[in-house]
Queue: 2 jobs
Job 1
Amino acid sequence: MIKLQRKVLLLSTILSLFLPVHLYVYAEPYLAPDVVIDVGHGGIDGGTSSSGVLEKDINLEVGLKLFNELNKKSFNVGITRINDATLSDESQFTNLSRHMRDLKQRMIIANTLKPRVFISLHVNWSKNKKRRGPVIIYQVSEKSLQLAHLVQGHLNEYYGVNKNPFKGNPYFLMKHLDMPSIIVELGYLSNSKDFGILTDEESQGELVDAMVRAVEEYFMLYPHENVTDTVNRGAIFQSRIR
Ligand SMILES: [Zn+2]
């Protein structure tokens, strides 16, 4: 687990009056994170599953590893959950379905934190047990496509497959986020080989290494325009935990 030692500061009391999310930020003055990692599903929502393994747990294991590794590389990183939280419970939009409350909450966190990129982690499932490998879905923008290609390329290499990312027009988050965004379907729980990769601590670490390389390459292509941004690098952001 992540060591939460740093002093907790409320992002902005004014912000919390208007938004149905309260964000605790570990740095002042506020500096937008480089990356927000969105850990898919959680709590009551297990996502897909196979042989008793739930997608939400893999997303969290990989998400926390990615969070730690990006932090070690001195990126500012945010994360939508660090435990088995149900994000829809934090939503004020009680008229919406649980699924929509969940997605809207993730959207609000991202659009509030305003990271430079948003990476949503998920795991796939298919009736076709042979189907395997990573699937990257991107927001229709040049930067999202670039990030998708980099992540896809590194994960393809790890899996020994040759796949292309695809457009995420119908996806709620891809439509409503204000920053370059991708959804990473890490692999197929329904495929025995992928199942082994997704549930093994060491190979999870290798998936994370592949994504870290992709993120580093992305920021080489799109470096910080403002050099003073480097002052607070290494700060940690996260959504409220209940
Ligand atoms: Zn999912």
Job 2
Amino acid sequence: MQSSNETKDLCDFCSGELHPGITELEFHVESQWVICENLPAQICGQCGEAYFSAQVSHQIDEILARRKQLQPLRYETVPVFSPELIAA
Ligand SMILES: [Zn+2]
């Protein structure tokens, strides 16, 4: 693993510049979609890839591990599609 340094971090995928921002992640666990939002990250200005600190990564792991005990912020419905919907 690389240690942090003073130079600007670049995206591993496209070498775009990373900027601090807030993002969300979606996970599919045990046949259920779980969304984590308000995640601070370094976000690539070119491709949108998000990079998380060790602390935020740990928080995400803990949310997923404790998701059945935690009260979610809210529930959202998720649209589901299939190729037959666009069959001519
Ligand atoms: Zn990128």
